[in-house]
Backbone:
């Protein structure tokens, strides 16, 4: 009986962080929005994972927040050991039945000209706008390292605009 109780407690503890930092809109589930610390007036980068459980593709067309002058969706790629990025003018495609990860070293959200500094422990409220599913309010957790529940634990390569 003790072993069963312990197993239940461990299972619930393992699920709590994931469910506490997930959002749902339509067929989409947004998991673990996070950002690194950054100074006011500078740019910050946002990461998250979007899973589309539906049979129709969707597109992340905008991100709104009072924390930055604007937010662009950037496509990241490595060229000669240097991170290159460019704005995705049509937004970020979320294929049907797929998971799209915005993570260090790849695609990400660029929060341009922060209104105030982002420090570890802060929460950045934002609204994600999807072409089909609509709007969903999320909160980016500011942390020094990627969420433990993700596979994003890799160092951030140097990048240039």
Residues:
């Amino acid at each position: 009986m003790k072993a069963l109780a312990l197993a239940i407690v461990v299972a619930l503890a393992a699920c709590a962080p994931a469910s506490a930092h997930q959002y749902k809109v339509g067929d989409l589930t947004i998991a673990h929005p996070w950002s690194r610390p950054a100074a006011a007036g500078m740019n910050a980068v946002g990461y998250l994972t979007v899973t589309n459980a539906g049979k129709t593709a969707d597109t992340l067309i905008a991100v709104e927040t009072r924390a930055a002058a604007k937010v662009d969706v950037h496509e990241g790629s490595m060229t000669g050991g240097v991170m290159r990025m460019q704005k995705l003018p049509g937004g970020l495609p979320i294929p049907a039945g797929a998971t799209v990860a915005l993570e260090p070293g790849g695609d990400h959200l660029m929060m341009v000209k922060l209104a105030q500094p982002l420090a570890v422990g802060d929460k950045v409220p934002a609204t994600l706008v999807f072409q089909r599913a609509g709007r969903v309010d999320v909160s980016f957790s500011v942390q020094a390292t990627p969420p433990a529940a993700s596979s994003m634990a890799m160092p951030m390569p140097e990048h240039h605009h």
Notes: Residues 104 and 156 are 6 Å apart (CA to CA). Confidence is low (pLDDT under 50) at residues 2-20, 150-161. The first helix runs from residue 2 to 20.
